[in-house]
Amino acid sequence: MFWLLATLAYLLGSLSFAILLSRLFGTGDPRAQGSGNPGATNMLRVAGKKLAILTLLGDLLKGLLPVLVARYCGFDIQQQAWIGLAAVLGHLYPLYFRFRGGKGVATAAGMLLGLYPPAALLAICVWLLTFHLTRTSSLAALIATPLTLPLLAWQQPGALLPMTVLTGLIVWRHRGNLRDLFAGRERHF
C-alpha cells in the first residue's frame, strides 16, 4: 500500500498546474517565458495574479492531499513524509511534461502543512518576511525551507530525514538562482 500511495503521489505531483492553466487560458507555456519555471512565481510574472494564485493553490494541494490520504490510511509520520516527498518529486520531474518541472516550493509547503502545520506556518512567515525585505522569491524559499528542520527535529523527528532530503532537492533546484544571487543578477519583484 505504501508504494502504491507513493506512486499515486508522484503521478499527482506530475500535474503541472502552471502548464495546464496556461494552456486553458491561452497564455503560453510558462517554461518558455519569464524565468522558464512552471510555478506560481513565474505565473505571476507572465500570466498575472489570478493564474498565479490558482497555480499556487493547485501546487499546495498536490503536496497536501497525499499526506492526508497517507495519514487516513494509518501510515506513521515518516511514511507520510516519504509519500509527500513523492508528490514533490513529481512536481520537480513531472512524467507528463518531459520531466521539466518547477522548483517544488509550493508543493513542499502543502506537504509540510499536512505533516506538521506549525512548521508550515514558520516556513510561510519566514518566506513572507524575506520576500517583503528582499523582493526575491528564490532567496525567500532558500531561507524558509531549511529553517523548518530544527523545529521538525524537536517536534516531529520522524519527518526529519524526508524533509532533509526535500530541503536538499529544493536547494539543488535553485542552484541557478544561487549563482544569480551571488552574482547580483537574480530577478526581483
What's the quick description here?
Catalyzes the transfer of an acyl group from acyl-phosphate (acyl-PO(4)) to glycerol-3-phosphate (G3P) to form lysophosphatidic acid (LPA). This enzyme utilizes acyl-phosphate as fatty acyl donor, but not acyl-CoA or acyl-ACP. The protein has 10 helices and no strands. With 189 residues, the protein is mainly alpha-helical.
Q: Based on CA inertia axes, which overall geometry fits?
A: globular
Summing up helix and strand content along with how strands pair, one would put the structural category as mainly alpha
Which bin fits the share of residues in helices? over 70%
* N- to C-terminal distance: 44 Å
The DSSP helix count reads 10
Low-confidence stretches: none
- Beta-strand portion reads under 5%
Rg measurement, Å: 16 Å
Characterize the biggest β-sheet: none
Mean pLDDT: 95
GO molecular function: glycerol-3-phosphate O-acyltransferase activity
Catalytic activity: an acyl phosphate + sn-glycerol 3-phosphate = a 1-acyl-sn-glycero-3-phosphate + phosphate
Pfam family, one: G3P_acyltransf
Main location: membrane
Keywords, please?
single chain, 189 residues, mainly alpha, 74% helix, 0% strand, transmembrane helix, transferase, transmembrane, Glycerol-3-phosphate acyltransferase
What does this structure look like?
By secondary structure, the chain is mainly α. The protein is built from 10 helices and no strands. The chain is globular, with a radius of gyration of 16 Å. One of its GO terms (molecular function) is glycerol-3-phosphate O-acyltransferase activity. Keywords: Acyltransferase, Cell membrane, Lipid biosynthesis, Lipid metabolism, Membrane, Phospholipid biosynthesis, Phospholipid metabolism, Transferase, Transmembrane, Transmembrane helix. This is Glycerol-3-phosphate acyltransferase.
